[in-house]
Amino acid sequence: MIVLTPEEMAKLDKKTIENGFPSLLLMETAGSGIAEVIKEKYGHSEKILILAGSGNNGGDGLVVGRLLDIWNYNVKIIIVGQKDKLNNEPLKNYQSCKLRDLEIKFVNRQKDLKELKETISYSDLIVDSLLGTGLNGDLREPYLTIVKLINNSGGKVLSVDIPTGINGRTGKVMGEAVNAETTVTMAFNKVGHHIHPGRVHTGELITVELGIPEKYVEKGKYNHHILTMKEAKELLPQRPYNGHKGTFGKVLVVGGSSGYEGAPALAGESALKMGSGVVKVLVPENINQTVSSFCKELTSGYLSKRQLKEEKDKYDVIALGPGLGMGKRQKEIVSYLLNNATTPLVIDADGLNNLSLEDLKSTESEVVLTPHPGEFSRLIDKPIKEIQSDRLKYIRKFAQKYKVIVLLKGANTLIADKTGNVYINKTGNNGMATAGSGDVLTGIISSLIGQNLSLYKSAVLGAFIHGLAGDIGTEGLGYYSLTASDIIENIPPAISKIIRGC
Length: 502
Description:
This protein has helices spanning 6-18, 23-41, 56-70, 88-99, 112-121, 143-152, 191-194, 198-202, 229-235, 262-273, 288-294, 305-311, 328-340, 350-353, 357-362, 373-380, 384-389, 391-402, 437-450, 455-477, 484-489, 491-500, and strands at 47-52, 74-80, 104-107, 125-129, 156-160, 182-186, 204-208, 224-225, 250-254, 278-283, 299-302, 317-320, 345-347, 367-369, 405-408, 414-416, 422-424. By secondary structure, it is of the alpha/beta class. α3 runs parallel beside α4 (88-99) and α19 (437-450) packs across α20 (455-477). The chain is elongated and about 85 Å long. The two termini are 17 Å apart.
């Protein structure tokens, strides 16, 4: 499913209006959709306060207020700004509200905020239609104080299009942001809805249709997406009735070291659970027996350059790095595979920590990198804080520069391809921030590649299934107790859920 930036949505709105769809009708349609959501979720006994700005987001809120008044809801409207500053369509909707003798007040002075605080405290539902997706700089007064009043009120909050204070392109909090229980957005989800911390502030996300003609939506030109359950089902590799072990892919896991015996086993077992026909682990001789004992279905061998030379072309994909350790020998292994392997490589953990960017640039293999922010920080020599402030920018730039797939883990894992497309993963939870979780993800992605799914689709679907398995796991275990092994156990229920579509 495509996800738009604020600029892309504004351009689409403009094209729709220029081709004969009146802007006032767009606003009416948006407000009507929001009002219907409120009608469905909240009763007539609720005291509803519409907090509107002077722009189009505020205009949507004014439509909501007028319709709720028609439906006999207890509604008040407060507009932040001055009447003579209202834009064209918001002004017309203000005039329509006045025709119904709706209670409308303007807040434009510091002394008005004291009265506003009292009004907010008496409201059961606050409709935040202050600023919308066009915000670029930090919130200024009086919006900064008003957002704090909203958040401190303890009341339920429904935001129009996006919570005030969230950057619609990055999900960043611009000084302060509304904590919404529900956000109703128009036509398409926005990038800022799905990227942390915007995702947390958004709450439940509901999309209402605006009636924008399909022919104006240039789907091929948009490069942000999220995967839906239906799309995930379409991506799942087919399982032919007459298939055999070779049909369903052969995965080679290269990794392991003393103290990290579990990592390659977790990657291998998760690949098997994801449907691989054969999985072999190559690990140091001194830990081979231990690693093999974790999963009966894994085959194993000793990790050496000679063994790598013999094995590297016998498999459909190589998962490189789980538990590999750091050092000269490990660097040589990573370098050797990047310079000599022809099969796709999924590189994680110490595979990344021993990686040379020069080798990455010159490799002939297709590559998926799956760093967490710390590993990515070391890889590009940028502070973690700087990367986290604009995760989209950094992974897109890296993927395009080195012609690889980059999956950056974290709250809302991001997956970028070499053409600039980015998928924002919407599954997963903080219970998955546990040792071995990344090894499981590596195994899932490697398995999908081995089953002939493209590298990018494997990374996108793999992240989705990994997160969904974690979500299912926490239903029974909670967020505190989830382990990597629990995620593996819930891969089959996750796949079943995708197949069922619910």
